Amino acid sequence: MLLDGKQLSAKILKSVKRKLAGKKGKVGLAVILVGNHSASVAYVRQKKLAAEDVGFAFREVRLPISVSETRLLREIEKLNHDKKIHGFIVQLPLPKKISTQKILTAICPAKDVDGFHPLNFGRGFLQLPALLPATPAGILKLLDFYKILLRGKNCVVVGHSNIVGKPLAILLLNRDATVSVCHEFTKDLKYFTKSADIVISAAGVPKLIRANMLKKNCVVIDCGCTKINGKIVGDVDFDSVKKIARAITPVPGGVGPMTVATLIENTFCATENFKF
Asked: How far apart are CA 152 and CA 208, in angstroms?
């Protein structure tokens, strides 16, 4: 079974558009983009198209790669107080000279539609109302849509980033899955993946997950996105793995669209004015 993120994301965007019809005024989404890294520019373009498709007012704040941390913090503060902007994100990655954690913490939690502020992390982990990180939340929506149960399942998350791996592991635990988190220092990745009912890879290593590392009828979620010879590939060797997996996401067209759709949904939720 192909887990089609495009299909579900279209349903989510349609739902948001329908809900917007009953709201007064425009919903504003902004993105701060530092530099012109090709992947980041492409991601922002996808978010812009989705935002405008549902009827949001979209604003892009483009800053030079040489921007200082102080200037970036000033731009964040402007958006924090801008009543026309209900949610915004700072597109990652940022230049090494800038503290990513300092920048993400400066965003008003109620406008943090990427779900990276510590307050949103903590509330989400405790299953309190929060804006959840878009990619992990999107993955759960995809699994739910295809009726893939999590309770009691052995889940392996490959990658322990703050953006995907760590928050995803907690969200899976909150759904009563048994979770193992593997990363670059894991000595025997195959030992973990071979016994997993669900493998979710967010390592950014092309074709890291191969058929001989998996058990038959497992579910495979590929969050990888690497450009090789002009083609986007994931962490999973799709052609071999699809022969043994019960369900698998394509790259592109799987997790990516779900991330964008969840960001849009988070922005709508931000208009409800979470009380932190």
From this structure: 26
